[in-house]
Amino acid sequence: MDLETQQARFSKIIKDHYFRYPLMQVQDLYKLIYQAAMGSEHAITDEDSAWARLEQEVVKLNKDVRAPELEDLSPDGRIVRVNLRPYLLSGGDIERLFKAFMQTSKEFQGDERNLDRYATWAMALVEVNEISLSQGEFAEFFEQRRRGGHSAVHHSAVYKGAYQPAYRIVAQEYLRR
Asked: How many domains does the chain have?
């Protein structure tokens, strides 16, 4: 897929997320970009802890389904966010999801060049005010992460409070198996 098509698809992903989550902050946009480029590689320290966290999250889920079951993150559609509430309500298998999550973290190779490219595309949307975030804040936040080796971040308190995110990042190909 050429870069122009990738940019158009990624711009649509960002706008869709912003429409669905209008209280998104700069760090939430960065998190989306990071997940699209890097997958779930940052999320696993050890398999037992990752399973325990997932089980705890599932127990605490409310039944409010604001998000779709799957949300594209990467322009090629390979990396998706699987939202736990709708996934489980539609009969999704938590063990299957966990296996896909683990396989993604072990096998998907993130790409910092894509991270930089996606950030550039996101900044273009901010600059034309398709996303109402501060250009200066976004540029500064991204630059700080870049200097720090593109570290992962948590969702903002505003985002967490409003949307109670509960999901796993997976490569779709592993979820289908």
From this structure: 1
- What's the full length of the chain, in residues? 177
Transcribe 60-123 into DSSP letters: H--S---S-SEEE-STTS-EEEEEHHHHHHTT--HHHHHHHHHHHHHH----HHHHHHHHHHHH
Who contacts 13 (Cβ-Cβ below 8 Å, separation ≥6)? Answer: 32, 36, 72, 73, 74, 75
- Tokens representing 23 are 């209280």
CB distance 58 to 93 below 8 Å:
no
pLDDT (tens digit per residue) in 5-59: 999 999 999 999 999 999 999 999 999 999 999 998 666 778 899 999 999 999 9
Regarding pTM above 0.85, the answer is yes
Can you give the residue range of the structural domain that contains 131?
3-176
Instruction: Name the strand (E) or helix (H) holding 170.
Output: strand 167-171
